[in-house]
Amino acid sequence: MTQRAACRLEGHTDCVQAVALDAQAHTCATSSWDTTIRVWDVQAALADAEAEGGRKRRKTAADSAACMSAPHVESESRATLEGHSQVVSGLAWPTAHGGSHLLSGSWDHTLKRWDVARAVCVQTISTGKAVQCVAAWAASGDVLACGASDGTLRLWDVRGSSEQLVRRSCGWLCVCNLNARADSAPRPRRLSRRTSRTAASCPA
């Protein structure tokens, strides 16, 4: 059975590259080839969609058949985060700081930490390579995993911007996941990765 989307979030001017939800699924961040990150109020969008659906259900059966085919469109994002100069390829949303900090990686060779409430960048780390994916140690957000276009996977301690090269793969690192023991110091326990040789244009 095909499911219809409850609502559609629109605002980016180019392809959406990455999506991240906060721990409570109240807020969603999307990144794009238009070099921006948009932050959306998921609960408000769903509430608007439900209210609109109720209005549609009160229409006649003939009218409803036409108007129920398209989901509610939410075009007003809560915030737009600007600072990257190339496609924003990865997002991670740790639970630390009350979930107020968002992490992003880009082909512009940087990782950025954002204060979502103030819509400002509070930290930039130069990676030296185009970033393909980002993962964060969820409990603190202090340890990041960063997959690059040269097939390397790097760990970063953002408290001091220290870097540790983990390994080199045979292709691009497109997805990475960082898992750690909740009762330990922010130290990576396991890193999982997937590689891809998909042909695409990406800076070195």
Question: Can you walk through the features of this model?
Answer:
With 204 residues, the protein is mainly β. It has one domain: 7 Propeller (Methylamine Dehydrogenase, Chain H). Helices cover 11% and strands 45% of the residues. The chain is built from two helices and 16 strands. The chain has helices spanning 42-57, 61-67, and strands at 7-9, 16-21, 27-32, 36-41, 72-74, 79-82, 88-92, 101-106, 110-115, 120-126, 131-136, 143-148, 152-157, 162-168, 172-179, 190-196. The strands form five sheets. The protein has a four-stranded antiparallel beta sheet with strand order 2-3-4-6. A four-stranded antiparallel beta sheet has the order 7-8-9-10, with no helix packed on it. It has a four-stranded antiparallel beta sheet with strand order 11-12-13-14, with no helix packed on it.
Q: Would you count the extended β strands for me?
A: 16
Strand content: over 45%
Tell me which oligomeric state these chains represent.
single chain
Low-confidence stretches: 64-68, 182-204
In short:
11% of the residues lie in helices and 45% in strands. The protein is mostly beta strands.
How is the secondary structure organized here?
Elements: E1 7-9, E2 16-21, E3 27-32, E4 36-41, H1 42-57, H2 61-67, E5 72-74, E6 79-82, E7 88-92, E8 101-106, E9 110-115, E10 120-126, E11 131-136, E12 143-148, E13 152-157, E14 162-168, E15 172-179, E16 190-196
Parallel strand pairs: 1-5
Antiparallel strand pairs: 2-3, 3-4, 4-6, 7-8, 8-9, 9-10, 11-12, 12-13, 13-14, 15-16
